[in-house]
């Protein structure tokens, strides 16, 4: 009888111990799953807050390196990354402004070179005509034509100051003749007065 009771007690202890071991294992599995969940959540958080903004900054730097200045650098993230993104954006805006100014200067220079080339060609033609013919009216007419073309004007006229400095006389006209009324302008006119006072040609 004692042996049966002892055996029963041992079996009860074994059953209780096995139950506790099972509970401990379940607790361990729960802790492990919780740790894995925290690790995954931490990885996602780090990716969103650090890795993704850093990747976007790298892409922005690549675009700047390829001289693609159209897209703004707008990266959200921690304060340090946001500050770095702001510096990138300021640099991009500065480069874009400088690039625009260079393009405008280049276009302006090209226009000035083209205009200067036209002026030199016109002067060359006028000098050639002067040396090849002695008719003053034809030379003045050629000069007036060249001036109208260079100024992209509809009408151009050439007036010479009469001896005695009191009248401007129309000597040559290029363009629509109806745009000019009369062939003489008196010295009392404001335009004539400015020419007479400066003793220089006026355009």
Structure description:
The protein is mainly alpha-helical. The protein is built from four helices and three strands, in the order αααβββα. The chain has helices spanning 2-65, 79-132, 136-151, 190-198; strands at 155-161, 167-175, 184-186. It has a three-stranded antiparallel beta sheet. A hairpin with an 8-residue loop joins β2 and β3. α1 (2-65) runs parallel beside α2 (79-132) and α2 (79-132) runs antiparallel to α3 (136-151).
Q: How would you summarize what this structure contains?
A:
Helix content is 70%, strand content 9%. The N and C termini lie far apart (138 Å).
The geometry reads as: rod-shaped
Strand content: 5-15%
Classify the helix fraction into a percent range.
Answer: over 70%
Radius of gyration: 46 Å
Helix tally? 4
Oligomer: single chain
Query: Unreliable stretches, pLDDT < 50, 5 or more residues?
Result: none
How many strand elements? 3
Strand order of the largest sheet: 1-2-3
Q: Let me know the average pLDDT.
A: 77
Topology as H/E string? HHHEEEH
From the helix content, strand content and strand pairing, which structural class follows? mainly alpha
Largest sheet: 3 strands, antiparallel
**Separation of the first and last Cα atoms:** 138 Å
């Amino acid at each position: 009888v004692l042996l049966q009771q002892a055996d029963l007690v041992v079996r009860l202890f074994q059953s209780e111990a096995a139950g506790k071991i099972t509970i401990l294992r379940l607790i361990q599995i729960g802790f492990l799953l919780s740790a894995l969940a925290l690790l995954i959540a931490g990885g996602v958080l780090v990716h969103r807050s650090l890795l993704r903004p850093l990747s976007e900054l790298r892409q922005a730097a690549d675009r700047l390196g390829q001289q693609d200045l159209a897209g703004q650098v707008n990266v959200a993230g921690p304060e340090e990354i946001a500050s770095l993104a702001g510096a990138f954006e300021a640099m991009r805006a500065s480069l874009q402004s400088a690039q625009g100014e260079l393009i405008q200067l280049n276009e302006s220079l090209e226009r000035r070179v083209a205009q200067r080339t036209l002026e030199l060609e016109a002067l060359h033609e006028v000098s050639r005509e002067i040396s090849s013919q002695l008719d003053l009216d034809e030379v003045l007419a050629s000069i007036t034509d060249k001036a109208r073309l260079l100024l992209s004007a509809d009408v151009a006229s050439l007036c010479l100051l009469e001896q005695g400095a009191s009248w401007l006389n129309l000597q040559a006209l290029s363009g629509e003749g109806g745009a000019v009324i009369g062939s003489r302008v008196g010295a009392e006119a404001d335009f004539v007065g400015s020419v007479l006072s400066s003793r220089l040609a006026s355009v």
